[in-house]
Amino acid sequence: MLPSSNPSPQVADSHHHSPEKSKKLELKTTLHSLKSHISAHRCAWLTATVFLQLLIILFLNRASSPPSLPSTHRPKFESDIATHRHNFKSGAVATPMYDESCKFGRIYMYDLPTMLNKDLLDNCHNLDLWSSRCNAVSNMGSTDPTSLYLNPPLVSNGGFGPPATGLDGIIPVNLTLAWYWTDMYIAEVIYHDRMMNYKCRTLNQNQAIAFYIPFYVGLAVGKYLWFNHTSKDRDYHSEVMLNWVKDQPPWKTSNGSDHFIMLGRLTWDFRRLSDNDNEWGTKFIYMPLMKNVLRLTVERSRWDELEISVPYPTAFHPRSESDIRQWQNLIRLKNRPNHLSFVGATRKEIKNDFRGVLMNYCKSESSFCKIVDCSITQCYDGAPSILEAFLDSNFCLQPKGDGFTRRSAFDCMLAGAIPVFFWRGSFEHQYQWHLPKSAETYSVFIDHKDVRNDTTIIRRVLEKYSRQEIEKMRNTIIDFLPRLLYSRSNADLGSIEDAFDIAMEGVLRRFKRQKMAAGGQRLV
Questions:
Q1: What span, in angstroms and rounded, lies between the C-alpha atoms of 139 and 147?
Q2: Same domain, residue pair 103 and 210
Q3: What biological processes does GO assign it (predicted)?
Q4: pTM to 2 decimals?
């Protein structure tokens, strides 16, 4: 028999389906395929939904204000005066370049290497060849040089120096905490400290119209001004600063034309003409990189348009508007038994010393002129004897100081006395942002040449002023007096602007005008 032609059932099932079985298998296969397709689309849909939600969250976060920074990165403008720590840190707050309180723009302050400012204070016993400067830059209250050398202050008290003492019976008790023995050449530290809390300071370079360099060049060069030092010694810190600042982006943009610095000493200390070791001072101002930098200084050169003079620091640093008003009322009503006073000492090493001329004149007119001889009486930083003499006088004689100007003139006006100048350079082209344009409204000028010829001219000139004229001049001084004061960094003076505020507004106004002129605009 021949073998059967039908395949085995298993083989037949695998190749030849009946119509009913084929339909069932097709339906089953279709369902599996559809289920798989739906699962894949569902996965993709879920993924897209999640991704869309993430995009929405990111968009909302970017539109809202940023979260608070960690405490280690929060901006810190307040200088820690209460704990006597000078704050050299910086932070950041996003602010517009101009607003109602800062209509002329904002200032960015560089964070310099500490050797250019803070380290100088920490090593204050090395700032002077003859004595420690620690008492001048600290508020530790100690006057013992040995103690200050062994324990130099870590802080500067904003540059005010130690609290004033010995003022009992001279000023009201409640004002004594506003008085300090402040060094006449310490403005670099005062301006740096004030900038820490300045309302128009910004920590964003792109928001600034002016850039402040807090370099203590006067303190740095101080001990090198005298013998046994080379010109390189005197220029060292200045060159370090300029080599650092020239690499900063704002400097590269402007070549320093929107930068400014405070010079704590007279301008003449920074104008050495050669590299001769025997020549006085540093050549800081004449260094090529300084050619565009604006400079604030306690005495300017009248021929330098990049210099602005600002008041010398005095001993009174008001804590509030109330302090200022109380002091103004006191000096306005003060009884003044002396018509005239002279505070100073003769300089025997100077031929025909004019101070000696004034000293001899006052000795011959003792009923008319009160003398405080600083070769006998201590005359440090606004000492009680100085303040008392000026408070008791209508006029005060003001010869030249180390330059044409003199810190004593500001001590005189602080007490409500009227300064008598003998050189036009003592008031002309000086303090133009702070003093009235008309010097005759607050001072008297008698040419020093006329005094040398006949000292009696002093009395003849001053006796021509009536009581009413004297009171008018005094009231003028009392009215502008706040513009000559440096308040504490955290002081609330209300609507009053002090010397620092006036100086910063002047800087900002100048740089804004400069910027607008470059763009073809004009500042009204």
A1: 14
A2: yes
A3: xyloglucan biosynthetic process
A4: 0.80
pLDDT at 348: 82
What local confidence, expressed as pLDDT, does residue 156 receive?
52
Helix (H, G, I), strand (E, B), or coil: what is residue 80?
strand
Cβ count within 10 A of residue 423: 17
Q: Where are the beta strands (DSSP E) in 337-379?
A: 338-344, 369-373
Strand partners, 316: 179
DSSP string, 408-420: HHHHHHHTTPEEE
Quote the domain boundaries for residue 378. 328-484
Helix (H, G, I), strand (E, B) or coil at 444: strand
Q: What's the token pair of residue 255?
A: 């070549």
262 and 152 belong to one structural domain: yes
Determine the Cα–Cα distance for residues 245 and 356; give it in Å rounded to an integer.
Answer: 46
Question: CA 471 to CA 257: how far, in whole Å?
Answer: 44
Query: Residue 362, Cβ neighbours under 10 Å: how many?
Result: 22
Number of H helices, E strands in the chain: 17, 11
| pLDDT of the residue at 138 | 61
Q: What is the pLDDT of residues 262-314, one digit of tens each?
A: 999 999 999 999 999 999 999 999 999 999 999 999 999 999 999 999 999 99
Number of domains in the chain: 2
Tokens of 224: 């090198």
Residues 6+ apart with CB under 8 A from 472: none
Q: Per mean pLDDT, which range of 36-40, 317-321, 322-326, 443-447 is the poorest? A: 36-40
Tokens of 55: 């995009």
Helices 407-414, 384-391: axis angle to 10 degrees equals 60
φ and ψ at residue 329, rounded to 5 degrees: -65, -35
CATH of the domain at 358: 3.40.50.2000
The mean predicted confidence, pLDDT, of the chain is: 82
| Integer Cα distance of 73 and 212 in angstroms | 22
Q: Is 153 exposed, middle or buried (0-12, 13-18, 19+ CB in 10 A)?
A: buried
DSSP assignment letter at 75: -
Give the list of residues 6+ apart from residue 442 with CB closer than 8 angstroms, or none. Answer: 413, 418, 419, 435, 436, 473, 476, 477, 480
Assigned domain for 57 exists:
no
Which is it for strands 210-213 and 259-263: parallel, antiparallel or unpaired? parallel
Residues 201, 508: Cα–Cα separation, whole Å:
11
492 vs 125, more confident:
492
Specify whether 241 is located in the same domain as 102: yes
Residue 372 and residue 282 in one domain? no
The count of other CB atoms within 10 Å of the CB of residue 50 is 10
Burial label, 220 (beta-carbon count in 10 A; 0-12, 13-18, 19+): buried
Q: Are residues 286 and 201 in the same domain?
A: yes
Which H or E element spans position 19?
helix 19-63
Rounded Cα gap, residues 429 and 424, in angstroms: 9
Query: Could you tell me where the DSSP H helices lie in 157-284?
Result: 187-196, 217-222, 231-245, 249-254
119 and 235 housed in the same domain? yes
pLDDT band per the 50, 70, 90 thresholds, residue 143? very low
